[in-house]
């Protein structure tokens, strides 16, 4: 199980997304997963082996590293990407549930093969329960996105990586200087990933607004149709009565 | 520390460049000839060289960076001062950002196909064969697609040049120095620090910058080609033909609007049960309309 497998899985849910959803998926995989795997992982590769403290005391480096880096950036980002990708599977679960129900119905009514085929290939309109599922998945995505960014900000006191940290945990003999490896490069990538994260959040917000607008539009159309229908049927009933 | 063996290029990263290749090369169908050449240059001379060769040259850049002092931390600090961001990461980011505008074209083509499919279904000719034909249809680079294509090439150029400029800012000389002198805290005084494999890095830097320049030239050539083609199309068509084509296009979109309107009305009218309206006062009860 790896990133390409996740990508293949999410690509399957693409059929039932809006266009903004498809753009979001591309941004996620190209600007976040690819950059993580291809570039960021090698920057953080030697984070512990190259964390040097100005002391020969055994154990001091381990303890200081653990104090200043409770969770590595790379692991936080991997978790964030996994959590953020998963709500989309809610939508695909609902779609397969609907397909299953309809298939059963068709088989009961003794339908043909081609009906089942069209069932598999059809694209459900985003209305009704699917609309609610989609909305929930968007809300969850945004919550996870924001939650993880906030966690990163809180744990590391901002997005900048310091060059030097001072540590006096036991067994370090006194306040020792410890030096972080490649701090500037790490800062650049942290800012890049935070920016990509915000872009994804903005896309999710835009998609939310689009869904709400579409639903309101549909309601308005239905109301207008309903009004027209009632007026017409009122007219028709009156005419029939006059005729009789 | 002795010079460590460079790490083997990560299989995961190879897989991801492979997925990236699959995504980007899908745009190939709708590119011009120069666009396809550009794509091949990107994949063979830049991404492949990066993954297969350059990553192993820069693999031990930090572990092989030695300073003439035993002061702990001096190595890290001096390395960070002289190499704020590694060449490899800059090139990887550059390649990702430069290849992505091609997806704009893919999105536009997908949108056109979607619209055509809907139109076909509405007109009632949605047979599987016709839908398949739409999927495999190759669009001419005219009209809105021409503009999308142009914009994607311009973005490519902007990203390419921006990264070359960033490279110039951070590493003003394309030559990798053998020795740097460093005196940041905690180095006790000005210490000599030695870079690992400077000549090999210089060779690869020159190579990647050259290929970058070639890609910029290819993009400029593509822009010129597209503009020339558009002008030729404008001029070779006699004026009335051009006007007629424009009128036909407007008519067909107007006709489509009319058809849509009729369909919408039809779905409303089908709910009525009585249609005949008697004149005079009985009609006035329907004066809502």
Structure description:
The complex is a heterodimer of chains A (244) and B (289). Chain A is mainly α and 244 residues long. Chain A has one domain: de novo design (two linked rop proteins). Chain A is built from eight helices and three strands; from the N terminus they run H-H-E-H-H-H-H-H-E-E-H. In chain A, strand 2 and strand 3 form a beta hairpin. Chain B is mainly α. Chain B has a three-stranded antiparallel sheet with strand order 1-3-2, with helices on one face. At the A-B interface, helix 1, helix 2, strand 1, strand 3 and helix 8 of A face helix 1, helix 3, helix 4 and helix 5 of B. Chain B: One of its GO terms (cellular component) is connexin complex. Chain B: A connexon is composed of a hexamer of connexins. Chain B: Its main location: other.
Average pLDDT of chain A, rounded to a whole number, is 89
Low-confidence sequence ranges of chain B: 1-10, 273-289
Distance between the termini of chain A: 75 Å
* Unreliable runs of chain A: none
Got a strand count of chain B?
3
Overall geometry of chain B comes to elongated
CATH architecture of chain A: Up-down Bundle
Global Rg of chain A: 28 Å
Give the helix proportion of chain A (percent range). Answer: over 70%
**Major sheet: arrangement of strands of chain A:** 1-3-2
CATH topology of chain B: de novo design (two linked rop proteins)
What is the overall number of helices of chain A? 8
Q: Approximately what portion of the residues of chain A adopt beta-strand conformation?
A: under 5%
Which percent band covers the strand fraction of chain B? under 5%
Count of domains of chain A: 1
Number of strands of chain A: 3
CATH top level of chain B?
A: Mainly Alpha
GO molecular function (chain A): gap junction channel activity
Family (chain A): Belongs to the connexin family.
Membrane topology (chain A): Multi-pass membrane protein
Keywords (chain A): Cell junction, Cell membrane, Gap junction, Hearing, Membrane, Transmembrane, Transmembrane helix
